[in-house]
């Protein structure tokens, strides 16, 4: 009888317990969006970029439209590689994923890859209020960039509020803050990302997304190296 | 012949003015040549010896990332096997472990600097302090081994000093980001663009930061450098598995064996380039000196035409008269070579006592090192001697050619 009750309660718990990581992956997954990225040092914008991004599964393509010096530049990434097309020289170069994204506080991997479920397991969940939960995540593999993360999630909208990224030695490397949730095709997602490098003072990067869509109609050929050369 | 030599000695003493002028030129040539030879040889020797002693070892075993990862269950076994093989080879003097992650970053408050991080064992610290001049602080990693040694290039660029704190971030052997806090315990003077970005830390700290099970490299020092290539082959044969399928030489099962010649090739090329570059300058100067000597000998012969005419009219043959002048030239060359060599030796010893010549931070681009210690060799001394004897002799010979068609009467009539 006791065994039956406990298994029932487990079943009940499993049924109610949301798959946070899977939901977060879905929340942040968009197939089209325009973004303006601003890099701040001591609260002054030192550089900005405007871009369109297209996604299909693990493939992501970005096209820069501003400033004029960057217009026409394109980036293409899959799970493990990143390429950039330079229109002035008509050349495609390979970039490391760990490199800073266009000189910002975010790395290429931070922005290109959405894989909470694939990369992390939940070690601990802590309720921080009625609708806020804090998840302590641990990387499944030592090849994942951030060995651990603390993710604060709004359980009402199932959107992330804050993400703290830690190194292998448990030192805080970066903080990503998510703001202004918008509903896109019935699922909420943050439209403003603020990335702070915790090691360098007075520097932040702000990404503001708009015109977000969950689906795009681009064919698979659109996400190939040949297509970004055109 | 003895009488000609006596005549030559007497003439040298009598024509002191022209002898002295020629002599000064010869002395300067000797000094310049010896300095050039010794500097270029010194550059080559110290680049190679510094590299061998500290940077590359005579031989090195380099492990790849996959082998170094904690995921590699056979890492410990491999290391034990390597160590036992090393210990069983009596030719190997000593070995040391290094951690050399690629692309590390030094994080400062408002800046980042890419660095070459090198984790070294405590036993190597005395060698490090011999190889690199410590400008401030000490060649230690502090009580808790959380110290780092940086170059004055980085220290000056970011206004860093002893006890300043900074973070070092890198990608671990598996790809994850790792970071830790360190304090500066020593600042060394960098000697080339290659070691300007070197940052040295404790081996175990580096190993922990890089999250690795094995060292990146094991440096081996060999008692007799001539045996390097042979030992390389032997080591490879002792270490490789029977199933080793790699087609690349000295590479198998997650490691590569390299010798110092594989790695200092660039430095040797650079120093040889320096040597030939300096030699071409020296050759040009010798040419100028030759032309000067030649014109002075012509003038000397012209002014002594009566003397020559007298000797010829007394029955001396043209050949014997010429030989007097040639003996004079050899005597002058010999005498001033000795003076020049002594001065050059004093200069070289003085420079070495002064710890070498500091050519400036950017000199390493051209010379492979910012500090140069001249090194004189008996071959260079002999070569200089031959050059100093030969070119005045040649100049004299060419000048004497003008006597061939001159009649005795013409020589006696000249003023």
Low-confidence residue ranges of chain B: none
Shape of chain B: elongated
Helical coverage of chain A, percent range: 10-25%
| Content-based structural category of chain B | alpha+beta
Count of helix runs of chain A: 5
Q: Kindly report the CATH topology of chain A.
A: outer membrane lipoprotein receptor (LolB), chain A
Parts with pLDDT < 50 across at least 5 consecutive residues of chain A: 1-15
Strand order in the largest sheet of chain A: 6-5-4-3-2-1-13-12-11-10-9-8-7
Oligomer: heterodimer
Mean pLDDT across every amino acid position of chain A:
86
Compute the average pLDDT of chain B. Answer: 83
What is the count of distinct domains of chain B?
2
With strands numbered from the N-terminus, the spatial order across the biggest sheet of chain B is 3-4-9-6-8-7
Query: What is Rg of chain B?
Result: 31 Å
Shape type of chain A: globular
Largest sheet of chain A: 13 strands, antiparallel
Report the CATH architecture of chain A: Clam
Percent of residues of chain B in helical segments? 55-70%
- By CATH, the superfamily of chain A comes out as Lipoprotein localisation LolA/LolB/LppX
Q: What structural class do the secondary elements of chain A suggest?
A: alpha+beta
Descriptive terms for the model:
heterodimer; A: 230 residues; alpha+beta; 13-stranded antiparallel sheet; 48% strand; globular; disordered N terminus; B: alpha+beta; 16 helices; 18% strand
Give a verbal description of the structure.
Chain A is α+β, with helices and mostly antiparallel strands and 230 residues long. Chain A has one domain: Lipoprotein localisation LolA/LolB/LppX (outer membrane lipoprotein receptor (LolB), chain A, Clam). Chain A is built from five helices and 13 strands. A 13-stranded antiparallel β-sheet of chain A has the order 6-5-4-3-2-1-13-12-11-10-9-8-7. The N and C termini of chain A lie far apart (69 Å). In chain A, 30% of the residues are buried. Helix content of chain B is 55%, strand content 18%. In chain B, β11 and β12 form a beta hairpin. Chain B is built from 16 helices and 14 strands. Chain B is α+β, with helices and mostly antiparallel strands. Chain B is elongated. Chain B has two domains: 2-50 and 267-413, no CATH class; 65-253, no CATH class. Chain B has a six-stranded mixed β-barrel. In chain B, α1 crosses α13 and α2 runs antiparallel to α11 (265-303). The A-B interface holds A 98, 139, 141-147, 167-169, 171, 173, 199-202 and B 69-71, 107, 109-112, 167, 169, 171-172, 174-181, 208-209, 211.
